[in-house]
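CO-FOLDING WORKSHEET

Operator: S.A.
Ligand of interest: zinc ion
Run index: 108
Mode: holo prediction, single chain
Checklist:
[x] sequence pasted
[x] SMILES validated
[ ] output reviewed
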Amino acid sequence: MEKEILEEKKINCWYCGSEIAKKDKYCKVCGKEQSQKARFPYTKLGIIVTSLFIGPFVLKKAMTSPLLTKKERTKFSATLIIVMAIILFFIMKAINVIGNYYVQMFSY
Ligand SMILES: [Zn+2]
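OUTPUT RECEIVED:
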């Protein structure tokens, strides 16, 4: 009886989201390790750190992270899109400034 209860404890795989037993060290579906270290990219801090390297691609992680609630996912995604838009705006502005600089250089 007690064993049955223990086996019913299910969690979602940190990678593919498949339902697996909590005691499983590896996902039965995708085979990825379910350790604390493996969870890091899916934590709030992990997603922020990852976003510095892969930018908008982190959105997929944020949307599928089992560690975030639905509300947090929405908030996170919205924030990420705004931040990316601001960065893009400054990049465009910088390109414009550099462009103008060259135009001025060649017009004299
Ligand atoms: Zn999996």
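REVIEW:
The beta strands are 10-12, 19-21.
Residues 2-107 form one domain.
[x] output reviewed
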